[in-house]
Specification:
- It is a single chain.
- The protein is built from 11 helices and 20 strands.
- The chain is α+β, with helices and mostly antiparallel strands and 397 residues long.
- It folds into 3 domains: 154 residues, FAD/NAD(P)-binding domain; 53 residues, no CATH class; 132 residues, D-Amino Acid Oxidase, Chain A, domain 2 (2-Layer Sandwich).
- α1 links the parallel β1 and β2.
- α1 runs parallel beside α5, α2 packs across α11 and α9 packs across α10.
- It is globular and about 65 Å long.
Length: 397
């Protein structure tokens, strides 16, 4: 079967891209391939559902620009299409002197990224908003919100097929191989397809898909699992409470997030996973493990951050240690107040030097576009990322 554009990956970035392309080219036949039984099965459906503000990102970076633009587009789309969301704001709390001293710089960074209404609150002001948390001071970020990204992904899918009934969103259809020729020949578990353009939005599998195109990458996607606990006593906290990021560690740290369904998550930690899509503590895949551990950048990351790594693993296997970390922000939290909820896996792009490649990274080769790295805030920025991809598609069409 012949299509004009094929997208591999049924997460929010893939479907946002397909939706935007269908809007621009309503007569073009678009095919979306997703290997799982449902859309948004991995990173999209397993994140905390936060609409990010752009507070942390380096000014001028693709993450900062796309987060700002994408958030505006996302809010507009959600309101227009009745996708439930809540722009509730968040507190970024400092629990020690080092963190408190970092707040003015963090606020300045947010202002450079286009945020307004940011303010540094003293501990009494913080207590008036969240009376149960401990802080020396905090930044209030009014732009942060919450949404169900899995639901959003499915809304994009329905929009695509309502614009053009000849377009298809196929689940349980795994891309096995392709040939990057004038007409891209695509081999899947549900048969063969042809397309003028193929777009790789495969998330955790993006670098493996790019290998089929013989791309020479100086990076590797390595999976890190994050575990979340659910909060039983919802009266302890109201909205979103985040820590001040540690510049020496490539992960944000545990935080409290009210979900759009009213539940509360606490977490995550961050541990290397021996399976790219391994959500259990003991999940293992020999091929995935060899792929990650044969890359020297993985070992360099381990050696740089081994102390943090030990602490993160201790949180993975000890509720007591996890609780101790959470109590830095919410001191009155008790063991019975939390129970294990779920896990997600983050696709982290590592360079050969062991450093995290923190910005978006899109490559193209002939008639194939590869979205190699789309870290957080990719879900928030999905419609803006789609615009960047469309510019490349325009040139090819």
């Amino acid at each position: 079967m012949k299509f004009d554009i094929c997208i591999c990956g049924g997460g929010v970035v893939g479907l946002a891209t397909a939706y935007k392309l269908q809007l621009k080219y309503p007569k073009k036949k678009i095919l979306v391939l997703e290997k799982e039984k449902r859309l948004a099965s991995h990173q999209t459906g397993r994140n905390s559902g936060v609409i990010h503000s752009g507070l942390y990102y380096k000014p001028g970076s693709l993450k900062a620009k796309n987060c700002y633009n994408g958030r505006i587009q996302l809010l507009e789309f959600a309101k227009k299409n009745k996708v439930k969301l809540d722009v509730c704001g968040k507190l970024v709390v400092a629990t020690n002197r080092r963190e408190e001293e970092a707040l003015p710089s963090l606020l300045s960074n947010g202002v450079k990224n286009g945020l307004d209404g940011l303010s540094i609150l003293n501990k009494n002001q913080v207590s008036s908003i969240e009376p149960n948390i401990y802080s020396r001071a905090a930044i209030f970020v009014p732009q942060t919100g919450i949404i169900d990204f899995a639901n959003l992904t499915n809304v994009f899918a329905s929009k695509i097929m309502s614009i053009n009934t000849n377009s298809k969103v196929l689940t349980s259809t795994k891309l096995l191989n392709f040939k990057n020729e004038k007409i891209v020949k695509i081999i899947t578990t549900k048969g063969n397809f042809q397309s003028n353009i193929l777009i790789n939005c495969a998330g955790l599998q993006s670098d493996l898909i790019s290998k089929k195109d013989n791309l020479k990458l100086n990076m590797k996607i390595v999976g890190f699992r994050g575990d979340y606990y659910f909060l039983k006593n919802k009266s302890l906290i109201k909205n979103l409470v985040y820590p001040v990021p540690n510049p020496e560690f490539p992960f944000l740290g545990v935080h409290f997030t009210r979900m759009i369904d009213g539940s509360f998550e606490c977490g995550p930690n961050a541990v290397f996973t021996f399976k790219r899509e391994g959500y259990g503590k003991f999940d293992f895949n020999f091929k995935d493990s060899c792929d990650a551990l044969s890359f020297k950048g993985t070992w360099k990351l381990f050696f740089k951050h081994w102390r943090f790594g030990i602490n993160e693993y201790s949180k993975a296997f000890s509720k007591r240690v996890f609780l101790k970390e959470l109590r830095k922000i919410l001191p009155q939290l008790k063991n019975d107040d939390i129970y294990f909820g779920r896990s997600g896996v983050r696709a982290m792009a590592l360079g050969l030097d062991g450093n995290v490649i923190d910005d978006f990274h899109i490559l193209e080769k002939n008639n194939v576009i590869h979205v190699i790295n789309a870290p957080s805030p990719a879900a928030t920025a999905c419609l803006s990322i789609a615009d960047s991809i469309i510019k490349l598609v325009n040139n090819k069409l």
